[in-house]
Amino acid sequence: MPHNSGFTFPVACNCGRKLFTREDPFTLADANFRFYEDAEDDCCRELDHFVFPVFSPFRAAAAAAAAANVSSRYPSQCSTMARQVSL
After folding, report:
1. Structural domain tally of the chain?
2. Are the beta carbons of 31 and 17 closer than 8 angstroms?
3. CB 61, CB 69: distance < 8 Å
4. In Å, what is the CA distance from 66 to each residue of 47, 49, 55, 57, 70?
């Protein structure tokens, strides 16, 4: 059953130039993504957009594994580099 508290809220679009009215959101996707995506179609579409990197546990684990693999293959070079960095 969809959530509906009957409340509506004034909310600004991503750029802040327009106000929209929206109902109390039920899911995080509705609250934090879909509403702003729809509002952007009415206002902010032509503005510059910036894509920021997002932390990914998989990529972090892969990078750590790659670093461990390099240090196991070249232990003397890695310890030399570690000493140079600590100086």
Report:
1. 1
2. no
3. no
4. 39, 32, 17, 14, 6
